[in-house]
Amino acid sequence: MASAIDAEFLQSSELFQNQPRSVVDALLAKGSLLAFGSGQIVFNQGDPGDRLYIVKEGVVEIVATPKDGSEPRIVAYLGRGEVIGELALLTGSSRSATVRAPELAELFTVETPVFLDLLGTLPSFARNLCVVLARRLESTTLNAPASPSKQLQGNLRFFDLATVMQTLISSHQTGVLAVRQQGGEGEKRRKIAEILFFKGNISRAKFRHLIGDDAVFQLFQSPLDGEFAFTGRNMPEDEVQSDITMPAISLLMESVRLQDELPVLKQRLSDPERVFSQKAPELSWSDEESVELAAAVWARLKNGASLAELEAEIPRCSYAVYKTVDTLLSAGQIE
Questions:
Q1: Could you say which of 84, 131, 216, 277 is the most buried, measured as most Cβ atoms within 10 Å of its Cβ?
Q2: How far apart are CA 238 and CA 250, in angstroms?
Q3: Is this prediction's pTM over 0.90?
Q4: Please, which residues have CB within 8 angstroms of residue 17's CB and are 6 or more apart in sequence?
């Protein structure tokens, strides 16, 4: 069941901000609040556009079916205050994507006649709509944020982390994405990861004992059963210090690649408690980019260590540790 509708919610929405309270109250009387359960469809791609939606609580996912007939995919997430479906009302076209609630969500909705009446009688509403559409166009052509204060949160059982991050990157957001996980019995959820976004790029990352690129990689290599929350914020550029070495999209693509390849390594090295030790008299390693990691693993194996111990002690992601051990084992340098 949907909760009561508060005027403050609408006034915080980009589309209805700066509207007089009398206008907002009148709109509340003409609109309605709909509640959607986990997995429930708001509308399908191809449906007629007969109403406008604004997210009040929760998050909805945008699912598009490519024209080539390939499988539908999640292309974005929208959070509190963001507008859905205004283009279909303006153009009379059908819905260009499916909208679904991954978990519980509440949407405020107004039907087409109400929307068109607002456009015809309230110049300020029309101006706000132009601002929303212009920012979306600007975000595509000039790399400016489509929404200056995006707010997203949800349970990772229902959301794809890669798509959450892609949404923040493509909408050029500035703010912090935090991941929290349940501690022991009776304990509060504790923050295990924090990623700083600046104008759509990932500037800093921390995941448990890892920082930088490896922190992002490890997010995709660890089982996550917790909650995420992104909070947009303003941040001067001169205060942003980066520990990331590659562009955000490249980092995301590399994270997904390593996530796919790690199970193959874990299949070959199936016992994380197996203790490895040096066999060769000295390290032989030809790859200059990873020689520092190889030297750290080699030194730790002087007295013997398991993969679980190496992962806990060496500040690199699981893939990097497993790959190094697998290479040393294949070369006969460890046993």
A1: 216
A2: 24
A3: no
A4: 11, 128
